[in-house]
Amino acid sequence: MEADASRGHPAETFRSYEDLLDNHVKPLDLFYLEDEELARQLVQLGYRGSRKVMTREDFERAKAVAEEESRLARSEQQQQPLASMGTDLEDNFLRALAEREEPNRSGKMTSIIFIRDHNFLGHEISGYIDYCHRLKTEDFRQYFKRTKKLLPRSTDLSFYNWNTHICTTNSSPNFEVWTEDLGGLLFVNKRDQKILNVDPQAKPGDSSLRTPLRSDLYLQVLIFDHITRRKI
Predict the structure, then answer these.
(1) 102-126 tens-digit pLDDT
(2) CA-based, 20 to 30 A from 217: which of 19, 30, 59, 165?
(3) Has the keyword Transmembrane been applied to this entry (predicted)?
(4) What whole-number distance in Å separates Cα of residue 222 and Cα of residue 114?
């Protein structure tokens, strides 16, 4: 399945201009042309696909801007104290989140959290949470201090209410959600396009690790860690 560059700027989605061109090259093109470079040139000239491909100059200019913004964001994050600092982490799950906070904030790792538990109405709910994204959009001190419980929401990567049967899926800044696979949900990392498979009967995928955890706070918790090899 192709990466959908419309979800984000191509300079943030693709490592190089060649990767951008390759995204528009079909297997059938390579079969007939038998030349990868020629296939790329046809894409660049606008002969393949319905969407206009940006020029190399525009791509490299946008790439430089994205890299500078990423550097500034990392610098700002490094100056901020971690939400888990100074908290009493007795639960295995909270300790695991604390260990992954800095790598997720700095972009070295992107983690997906699976939680199954009950909401305030007593309904059983479950879902997958983009940890990196939630870290950036809310104050996690309330979770580490246990003044509030971290639960999946309908705006997370996936959400299911076992009582009402409400089910939602949403892509995040870090992951695309694929629901067409017969094996179940797949998450595609937007930085390196690697697939993370959450099926317990399958391997999680290249550069990914599945960690089940015992917790006194939740019915079931899992963490899937994806190591980001390529920096933006």
Answers:
(1) 999 988 999 999 999 999 999 999 9
(2) 165
(3) no
(4) 5
Query: pTM for this one?
Result: 0.66
* Bridge partner list, 220: 116
- CB 194 within 8 Å of CB 209: no
Element (H, E) at 79: helix 56-79
Question: Which residues touch 16 (CB under 8 Å, ≥6 apart)?
Answer: none
What was the pLDDT predicted at 19? 72
What is the gyration radius of the CA atoms in the chain, in angstroms? 20
pLDDT in tens, 193-226: 899 999 998 999 999 999 999 999 999 999 999 9
Q: How many residues does the chain have?
A: 232
Residue 203 CB coordination number (10 Å): 10
Q: Which residues lie across from 209 on neighbouring strands?
A: 225
Q: Higher pLDDT residue, 95 or 10?
A: 95
